[in-house]
UniProtKB/TrEMBL annotation:
The gene is mtnC. Belongs to the HAD-like hydrolase superfamily. MasA/MtnC family. Signal peptide: none annotated. Gene3D superfamilies: 1.10.720.60, HAD superfamily/HAD-like. Its EC number is 3.1.3.77. GO terms for molecular function: 2,3-diketo-5-methylthiopentyl-1-phosphate enolase activity; 2-hydroxy-3-keto-5-methylthiopentenyl-1-phosphate phosphatase activity; acireductone synthase activity; magnesium ion binding. Binds 1 Mg(2+) ion per subunit. Keywords: Amino-acid biosynthesis, Hydrolase, Magnesium, Metal-binding, Methionine biosynthesis. This is Enolase-phosphatase E1.
Length: 234
């Protein structure tokens, strides 16, 4: 890798540090099946108010009732729309699943040693995902490799950084973490996210896990199959 040594690594979750199949086949159905019940159980509470208000605003439908909100959230889940109110409520529902032991975050086996290696090297370690900060915290705290929270320095999502395909989001993260853009490395499985980070001056590496139906390379970017060789020990 040319240029200054990275001082921060920012990792995507789905398809990069964790399994996209797990997100699609386990997490999404878990939250979708519980949307109606969650809304009814939290009626009148601040989180319920926030989800209803944000769903109406995002859908451009100010008159949606609770049932309509549930249907809208379910439709977004089915189409994998990265809508902030869906990400918010998914994170809250998954938190219950992690707390009860019904869910565990899927993390690839090369990820914990990579995070530990970067920690030893004094490199800061962040997560940036469309999944909410609450969802990210649950995923890593209750991972199938145990509690990985101590290996992470912070979390960014659609609410506190912005959309992952927008270069402005990466500029916002740079301002927050205090590491120069040129010394920040982003790892993701999605070309448009890597393009946006690159436009913000970050360094980028694509990740494509074995068996990914999109192929073993992220078009237009240097790509690795796992994190074993990313910033190895000197
Ligand atoms: C534990 S985060 C759940 C994943 C998710 O909801 C999502 O939308 C994944 O997006 P990513 O940006 O991590 O690819
Ligand atoms: Mg991803």
């Amino acid at each position: 890798m040319n240029g200054p040594a990275p001082r921060a690594v920012v990792c995507d979750i789905e398809g990069t540090t964790g399994s996209a199949d797990h997100v699609r086949d386990v997490l999404f159905p878990y939250a979708r099946e519980r949307l109606t019940h969650w809304l009814a159980a939290h009626r009148g509470q601040p989180a319920w108010e926030r989800v209803l208000h944000a769903t109406r605003a995002h859908a451009g439908a100010p008159d949606l009732d609770e049932r309509g909100v549930a249907a809208t959230l379910a439709a977004w889940s089915d189409a994998d729309v990265k809508a902030p109110p869906l990400k918010d409520v998914q994170g809250l529902i998954w938190a219950d699943g992690y707390a009860s032991g019904e869910l565990a975050g899927h993390v690839y086996e090369d990820v914990p040693p990579a995070l530990a290696r970067w920690q030893r090297a004094g490199i800061a370690r962040y997560v940036y995902s469309s999944g909410s900060v609450a969802a990210q915290r649950g995923w890593f705290a209750h991972s199938d490799h145990g509690d990985l929270s101590p290996l992470l320095c912070g979390h960014f999502d659609l609410a506190n950084a912005g959309a992952k395909r927008d270069p402005a989001s990466y500029l916002a993260i740079t301002a927050r973490i205090g590491v120069p853009a040129g010394a920040t490395l982003f790892l993701s499985d999605v070309r448009e996210e890597l393009d946006a980070a690159l436009q913000a001056g970050w360094r980028v590496i694509g990740v494509r896990r074995a068996g990914d139906p999109r192929g073993d390379r992220v078009p237009g970017h240097a790509t690795v199959p796992d994190l074993h060789g990313v910033l190895p020990d000197p």
